[in-house]
Amino acid sequence: MVNLVLALGPLARKKGCRLYASDMRLKVDAATVCYPDLMVVCEEDPGEYYKEKPCLVIEVLSESTEATDRREKLRKYLGLPTLQAYLLVDSRLPRAFGYYREGEGRVYREAEVGTLPLPCLGGHLDLAEVYHGL
Questions:
Q1: Measured between alpha carbons, how far is 30 from 10 in angstroms, rounded to an integer?
Q2: Measuring CA to CA, how many Å separate 97 from each of 32, 41, 61?
Q3: 16 near 39, Cβ under 8 Å?
Q4: Which of 23, 35, 53, 132 is buried most deeply by CB count within 10 Å?
Q5: Are 123 and 84 in contact (CB under 8 A)?
Q6: CA angle (121 as vertex; 118, 127 as ends), nearest 5
Q7: What is the model's pTM?
Q8: Is the pLDDT of residue 64 over 80?
Q9: 18 vs 74, 80, 96, 106, 129, CA distance in Å?
Q10: In 10 A of CB 106, how many CB atoms?
Q11: How far is CA 75 from CA 61, 71, 82, 106, 128, in A?
């Protein structure tokens, strides 16, 4: 998780966005809030106790969270109109999965090496950086 923050922090600052790491709630519908592992908000989202307009959400997969992250959270997050990408980063093996908004649909990508795009940050997530030292 620290490597993700280190990789995303400079990109978020450069774009004038806020990066939240597990400390901010995300309101996904009228009755549901989640605590994403990482969330980037680039547009005005003045909520003090929760945010509603992320452009990027990242969950770190583990044995205990993977099913929820891939099913319940996936459906909820992809319904957010401002979300450009939802990334799942595996904590056990070097691999990551991304769901990207393209027009009215979504495109799925996965990688074990190389990079995954970060559309709202205008950059890429380098998997070598994410898994460095692990």
A1: 32
A2: 24, 20, 10
A3: no
A4: 53
A5: no
A6: 40
A7: 0.94
A8: yes
A9: 22, 17, 22, 24, 21
A10: 15
A11: 16, 6, 14, 12, 29
